[in-house]
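so the lab meeting is tmrw and i was supposed to have these ready like two days ago... anyway. pasting both below. for each one the top line is the aa sequence and the line under it is the structure tokens. i havent really looked at them closely yet so no promises
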Amino acid sequence: MSNEMDVVAVRALVATFEKDFNVPIKAAIEGIDGDIEKLNEQIATLQAKSRDQTYNKVAALVTLAQALNISNPSAGYNAFLAERGIVAPDMTKAGANPYPKFIKAVFSVQVGSVWSFTDRSVEKHANHVRFLVNAMRAGTLTGSVQDFIRDFKHATHGNMLDGIEANDRFDNKTDAQEKRIETVRERGRNADPVVTFDSPLGYEDGSVVSLWGRVVGGNLEIMFVESANDDKDSLYYKLGKTIKAA
């Protein structure tokens, strides 16, 4: 289906988002007068409001990306990108990713006659929006975007927005990134042990286990052992990341 939105309509949609979300949250802490408990309560309240505002912003970006149909860009959308000094992505190429330039355009600011993108902290929203749009298309996101973010949990990639970002990066690795990840995993598989215990743990050779312990009197006491074979690759990857390449 063609996308015939003109640049005026694109500007209007983006302007609405900018009006609602491009102004940072401002809040003054008043009337505290050195009361640490009240100060901590106020800080916690502001942090919760900030999280909610971030979730609302990401949800609005999802809505905006869908309204602009950036995966099938109109001439108007490409003209909007050009106005902000951004070359439109070539969506005819396999694996083309329109989301980084979408985020860059939406969060660019005008100084004089020049548009510039300086807030690198919002670049991760490109991962958030791509993942959430894909989840909607797959039918795995059926409620509100905000609730989906709050409830998002992943065993190895993390929770909420951090987990969504990591999950999106993992799902969309380039060949070069895949090779680097496998190199790190291999480094972990071939790592030398830090210490060897001769006490049997009840697992077969080659099993991967997680140990929880504490140091008492200079000795390490193992408090709990858990088999982690199903998560072997992830554990090897985490181990490999801590080991410097030879």
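ok protien two:
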Amino acid sequence: MSGTSRTDEGHGRLGSKLSGLAVALGCVLFLGGFAWGAVVYQPYTVPTDSMSPTIAGGDRVLAERIDGSEVQRGDVVVFKQASWGNLPMVKRVVAVGGDTVACCTQDKLTVNGKKIDEPYLPKGSAAESSTIPSIEVPKNRLFLLGDERSGSLDSTAHLTEAGNGTVPRSAVNARVDAVAWPMNGMLARPTGFETLGATSEPGPLRLVLAAVVAGAVLVLGGAAYGPIANRAGRRRSRTGSRERALAG
């Protein structure tokens, strides 16, 4: 009789400990994931359709805070350039310092003489609505275009300025990883630039989201486990008491 009671009490104490441990670990993962995301990522609202269909006007994006030296061809970046209005803008990097960019050859952008496949452009559209003369991008500068080439005020609108429409790497604040609202998810990797060299890897957004989700599951599961375990223990105790009464 006393042995059964001690066993039930032991189960109850173990259940409470496991419940508390799950809730504590869940809180660490949940809050840690949010803190990690806040440090690494910056949200931006894109004001125009110049990056459509990849990013539409009014979309909320998550951009990884990076140094401009980390930018690679194909990246969608957030930058500020005084001669462009000195407001945060979102464009795609199509050429970096030392590259020669031109358009168009068989309706395709060329970088260092190689035609670039750009699946992110609107279906049926050419790589550029106007001619881009052969331009050598100066060292530590970037040539940027919008994915909606016909309506984007990008490097092509600043070709007569110093640097032939390029912006310094130091102007870049962040690299866009995903569209958070509407929830379109991670941006597709720009595979058309891989023949020219290294391309960027996605940031840790998936790990951040995994930590937040796992933390939420542990908190909810741990909080629910304690009452369930206690209720099951009481039920076992009542069943044991009835069995002993019948046996007596």
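from a quick look at the 2nd one: The CA atoms of residues 60 and 155 lie 23 Å apart. The helical segments are 2-40, 205-247. will dig more after coffe
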